[in-house]
Design a protein that fits this description.
The chain is mostly beta strands and 164 residues long. The protein is 0% helix and 31% strand.
Length: 164
Amino acid sequence: MATTRVRKPLAIHLHGGKDGIIVCNDPGEEASQTYKAGAPLVYDSAEVEVLSAATATTSIIGIAAGPASGTAGTKVLVYEANDSNVFKGTLVNGTADIALAVTHIGAQYPLVTDTAANNNWYIDVSSTDAKKVEVIAAIDPIGDSNAQVAFRFLGGIQENVKQS
């Protein structure tokens, strides 16, 4: 029987073969950041900040291992976007729930934040803009709504990984 699950933010699922956490301290955190653990992070021109509409096409460093401090230059712990780390996230259809289908596995999607409710980040199956992740496996059963899936960041948008 299908279940509607509670939406959960992005998180690390499996560390594989390489240290999963990196420390970004030069540059450190950008001033006035308010992201939560699980937020996708990017470098702007000088510091580390949360992914936004302005940085949608920017490569991803990884996801925040903890919340922002709000203080410029503070070191940031990040689960690195690389081929060794597998992350988990909740599938959504824009702002609506969606049932996990077999067709979601292997597909590429962008990330979306739920700023109105809790500022968590999810995988958005309704958009084709700025794809960042590929779903590689189901964690929750097919047919469940707000299902968790395993994903990797696309190779071409991994900030610290050189692609050939």
